[in-house]
Queue: 2 jobs
Job 1
Amino acid sequence: MKATRSVLLATAVCVMALPALAHTRPELATADLVAAPAGSGPCHEASAEGVAVAGLPTAIKVAGAFEQQGLTCALAGNLRPAIGHFSQAIQRFPWRPQSYANRGQAYAGLGEYEFAVLDYDDAIRLDPKQQTYRYLRAVSLSEIGRAEEAVYDLEKVLKLNDRKVVSELQRYLAVKGFDPGPIDGVYGPSTRRALIGCVSDRCFSF
C-alpha cells in the first residue's frame, strides 16, 4: 500500500527507526547524563571500564550514557555494538521501556526477530499504553510466522472503530486476494480472518 493511502497512516502512529530517547523520563534527560563510558566515539563496543556506579541516581545517569551511545551506534548502522550498549543500560536501570524497545529494534535490524519480540514484550509490560511498541512487536511477530499474534497487536494499534479506516483496510485486503466480507467499515470475523491471512502471506504493508 502506498504511503499516501496506508492504513497505518490513519493510526497516527509515528514509528521511527530508532527514537532518540523518545518518552525520556526526567531522570534520563540528556542534560543530566554523565560522561559516556570509556572509549566513547562515533561507535565502540560497550564496556563498563572506568564507570563507577554509587547509588541509584548515578546508576540512572550511567544507563542514560550507555543508551545514548547505543543510539549513536544504531544510527550509524552498527547494530551489534548498539545492542551491547542497550544491554548495559538495561542492566543498570531495567525499568525504562524505551531501552528495551531500542534494543528490540536493533535485534530486528539484524533479523533476530525472536529476540526483538522478547524486548518488545518487556517494553509493553513496562508501558502498556505506548502503541508504538505494539506496532513494532507486530512487525517482528509477522516475520517469524506468528501472524495471529501480530494481528492482535495490530488490532490494538489500528483505529478499528473508525469505519473509514476499516473500509480502507477491507478494500486493501480484497485487492490482495483475501475476502474481508462486505466493504462496510465494520471490523468483524471475516475481516479479521482476511487480515491474518494477509499477514501470514507477508502481503500486509507495515
Job 2
Amino acid sequence: MAVDLGRVEQAEDELEQWLVDQAEAGVPEIVLVGLLHDYADDIEQLGYVPRMWGRNDR
C-alpha cells in the first residue's frame, strides 16, 4: 500500500494542533504524553489502529 505523504503531513499537523489546543485549555503536558504513550502501546500490541476505541479495547 502506498503512503500518501500529504495525508501523513495533514494528520501530523492536526495532531500537533490538537495537542496545542489541549495544553492551552489547561491539560498538563505530562497527561498528554501519557495518553500518547498509552495509545502507542495499544497500537503496537494490536498491530493496527482500531477503527473504534471501545472500553473493552483498552
